């Protein structure tokens, strides 16, 4: 348990150089977390640099946000040129902490720190899902290089501690927070404007699912549930917002079963331009360590239906901001969606309670405060 020392603000001012490393080839929730945290720490006066794949979408987004970048190839687990470039950066900047995302990032940073004399950075492994295996290689990676883990939920912490080589005191839970300056509470006029821009009439019900089109996100169950829902609300639409490897499969399922009212929206860079148009947001995942989409939906004052898996029950308040259903249960999913569609008072109540929950528990400021404490006070 961390304690806040009386002079912690002064200490943080003195220890303010941080390096984030993320070798992602795509843009997802984890990459958004890295961007938000790096930008907020920089805004608070810290010196922050973000390393990523040269010419990759992640580093492009980081650069567009005005943050310092360190381009690397990150093309192999053993990359001497990356190690040399990183070593030079470490010697010049002497960061107090290095925060890594993937196994490759940890291996690169750990090896380079190990062979750079006089640099004593704390290495944090930020995990949005379990990347470990019960192998000698992973055991050595953790025991040699990793000082602390940061995970977004108690559920993921429990998964991580199932590995015998992970020590309980090294795992810290840091729930994700939203920058509410980017997610203002939408007024009825704001919602009406977005719906009008999307070409939606006032009487048409929209259910949105905001997730990559991958098997673990549960779209198969959602589409089967939608058959039932659409029977009761033939004018309603289901928006699948995202892209992924299973898109062709889901399109074929829609075609073969003649499922009506399904709209594939593709990748949307800024979901804030779409989500306010929805009446309900659904997250039918089979596995979900946290569920940032739930935060975004609640910030938009939208009622939620999600599965009782992973960290999602920690994000929502059951029967207050969301209905929870078992995973891979189309009938239960359809029933929960229909209950909200048939009850506008419930939809409004869930939406307002959700907005309040985000404002109280899941803000970027709250997350950054806690992260600053970790980066300063957690030592090897």
Structural overview:
Helix 9 (219-232) links the parallel strand 8 (206-210) and strand 9 (237-241). The radius of gyration is 22 Å and the shape is elongated. The strands form two sheets. Strands 3-2-1-4-5-6-7 form a seven-stranded parallel β-sheet, with helices on both faces. The protein folds into two domains: 8-177 and 363-377, Glycogen Phosphorylase B (Rossmann fold), CATH 3.40.50.2000; 188-361, Rossmann fold (3-Layer(aba) Sandwich). Helix 2 crosses helix 15 (364-377), helix 4 (80-93) packs across helix 5 (103-114) and helix 9 packs across helix 13. The longest helix is centred in the last third of the chain and has 18 residues, at 344-361. It has helices spanning 8-14, 29-43, 57-64, 80-93, 103-114, 136-145, 154-161, 188-197, 219-232, 247-256, 292-299, 312-315, 330-341, 344-361, 364-377; strands at 17-22, 47-53, 68-72, 97-100, 122-126, 148-151, 171-173, 206-210, 237-241, 262-266, 280-283, 304-307, 322-325. The protein is α/β, with parallel strands linked by helices.
């Amino acid at each position: 348990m961390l304690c806040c020392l009386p002079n912690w603000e002064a200490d943080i001012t003195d220890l303010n150089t941080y390096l984030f490393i993320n070798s992602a080839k795509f843009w997802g929730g984890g990459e958004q977390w890295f961007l938000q945290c790096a930008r907020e720490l920089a805004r608070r006066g810290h010196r922050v640099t973000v390393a990523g794949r040269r010419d990759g979408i992640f580093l492009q987004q980081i650069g567009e946000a005005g943050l310092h970048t360190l381009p690397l190839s990150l093309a192999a687990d053993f990359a001497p040129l990356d190690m040399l470039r990183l070593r030079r950066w470490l010697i010049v900047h002497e960061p107090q902490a290095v925060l890594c995302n993937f196994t490759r990032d940890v291996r690169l940073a750990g090896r380079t720190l190990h062979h750079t004399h006089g640099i004593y950075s704390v290495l944090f492994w930020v995990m949005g899902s379990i990347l470990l295996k019960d192998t000698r290689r992973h055991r050595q990676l953790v025991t040699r290089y990793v000082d602390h883990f940061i995970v977004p939920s108690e559920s993921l912490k429990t998964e991580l501690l199932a590995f015998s080589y992970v020590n309980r005191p090294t795992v810290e839970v840091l729930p994700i927070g939203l920058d509410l300056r980017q997610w203002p509470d939408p007024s009825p006029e704001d919602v009406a404007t977005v719906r009008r821009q999307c070409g939606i009439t006032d009487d048409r019900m929209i259910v949105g699912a905001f997730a990559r089109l991958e098997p673990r996100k549960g779209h198969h169950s959602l589409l089967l549930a939608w058959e039932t829902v659409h029977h009761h609300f033939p004018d309603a639409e289901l928006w699948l917002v995202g892209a992924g490897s299973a898109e062709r499969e889901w399109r074929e399922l829609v075609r073969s079963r003649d499922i009506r009212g399904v709209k594939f929206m593709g990748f949307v860079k800024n979901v804030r331009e779409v989500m306010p148009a929805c009446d309900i947001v659904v997250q039918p995942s089979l596995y979900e360590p946290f569920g940032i989409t739930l935060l975004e939906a609640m910030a938009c004052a939208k009622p939620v239906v999600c599965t009782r898996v992973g960290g999602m029950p920690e994000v929502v308040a059951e029967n207050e901001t969301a209905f929870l259903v078992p995973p891979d249960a189309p009938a239960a999913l359809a029933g929960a969606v229909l209950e909200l569609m048939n009850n506008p008072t419930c939809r409004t109540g869930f939406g307002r309670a959700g907005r309040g929950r985000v404002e109280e528990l899941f803000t970027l400021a709250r997350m950054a405060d806690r992260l600053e404490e970790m980066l300063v006070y957690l030592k090897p």
